[in-house]
Amino acid sequence: MIRNTPRLRGLIQSSLSKVGARCLTAQAATALRESEPMFRYEEYADIDWNNLGFGLTRTDYMYTAKCKENESFQQGQLRDYGNVELSPAAGVLNYGQGLFEGTKAYRGENGRVFLFRPDQNAIRMQMGAERMCMRSPSVQQFVDAVKQTAFANKRWIPPPGKGSLYIRPLLIGTGPILGLSPSPEYTFLVYASPVGNYFKEGTAPLNLYVNDEFHRATRGGAGGVKSITNYAPVLQAISKAKAQGFSDVIYLDSVHKKYVEEASSCNMFLVKGNVISTPATVGTILEGITRKSIIDIARDSGYKVEERLVTVDELMEADEVFTTGTAVSIAAVGSITYNGQRKEYKTGDGLVSKDLYKTLVGIQLGKIEDKHNWVVQLD
Ligand code: COI
């Protein structure tokens, strides 16, 4: 495999690390051009861009930075993508001290590359780290790491219209610890993979199943943060639902078994008349970045949006239902099955979700005015 040089990595890193830097310095760009045979910088990787699902494709580089107990994170490094070595007593392996994030790099027309609100992922990771007693990188370090990872893996960003580069930041307790207490060391790691549609249905409407037996979170728990420990417990419910042909599972609140929380991989929205409603975030629901962007886009477009308790009965009586998430983007729901009843929703043209999707994607690809300053252009 052709490798880049440490000097080149250093230049790219220091160039992209400058506060607010949105492009490489001239020196780094020249070094990159001169090093072309050394650095994997062809425009596109040689893969089948027409058949990307949401599977892992091995890319070239990942970013890592470490932090010892009571210290700040060291400056991180890009390194070749590969396995990480862990102590068997690492906090993440023994006590689940780990958080993840998901954000995407999009290739617009004319080769421009855009990130969407990476600062919001950084802030969410910081809030999660506080809840899980972990140290976290600064917002600036987080955003720089995402930029560096996207830039170094640029050839893996799909052509316009074929998908995006999914960027997965992780914060894990890597220090050894036997008793139940915070890990003495943390690692911040960012890797990436080109992806297409999250669901195997592609862009076809989803068929969801309401499971009132398993709960994703409880009040006072950690359902509102992106802890790795929130995801394994839903695998059984998802597996059962998928075996019956459903796309994903919707969870209800654990106390009343009546209020809609979220699906395993995304937030829920319903449309009734001209009002859009979504479950309020009260600590049991992940505060999705796509969720809050859609609330703003919908309000900007003149829709009334309510964040409140939403009952499963209301969901079953809605005109339209859709889901949002970074991996999912916005997906229309075709049916929901609850208590043995299957409700079919409006699909096709004229959906509110289609209208919102067009605006969201237009902003993410630099085609629609970004009046909230959500988009970060990489080069
Ligand atoms: C995302 O949307 O980025 C997520 O982290 C959801 C995950 C289940 C793929």
TrEMBL record:
Named cofactor requirement(s): pyridoxal 5'-phosphate
Residues bearing PTM N6-(pyridoxal phosphate)lysine: K226
GO CC annotations, alphabetized: cytoplasm
Enzyme Commission number(s) of this protein: 2.6.1.42
Keywords: Amino-acid biosynthesis, Aminotransferase, Branched-chain amino acid biosynthesis, Pyridoxal phosphate, Transferase
A single GO molecular function term of this UniProt record: branched-chain-amino-acid transaminase activity
GO biological process: amino acid biosynthetic process; branched-chain amino acid biosynthetic process
Key word Amino-acid biosynthesis present: yes
Record field: catalytic activity: L-leucine + 2-oxoglutarate = 4-methyl-2-oxopentanoate + L-glutamate; L-valine + 2-oxoglutarate = 3-methyl-2-oxobutanoate + L-glutamate; L-isoleucine + 2-oxoglutarate = (S)-3-methyl-2-oxopentanoate + L-glutamate
Keyword Amino-acid biosynthesis: yes
CDD domains: BCAT_beta_family
InterPro entries per the UniProt record, alphabetical: Aminotrans_IV (IPR001544), Aminotrans_IV_CS (IPR018300), Aminotransferase-like (IPR036038), B_amino_transII (IPR005786), BCAT-like_C (IPR043132), BCAT-like_N (IPR043131), BCAT_family (IPR033939)
Family: Belongs to the class-IV pyridoxal-phosphate-dependent aminotransferase family.
Classification via NCBIfam families: ilvE_II, PRK13357.1
Name of the protein described by the UniProt record: Branched-chain-amino-acid aminotransferase
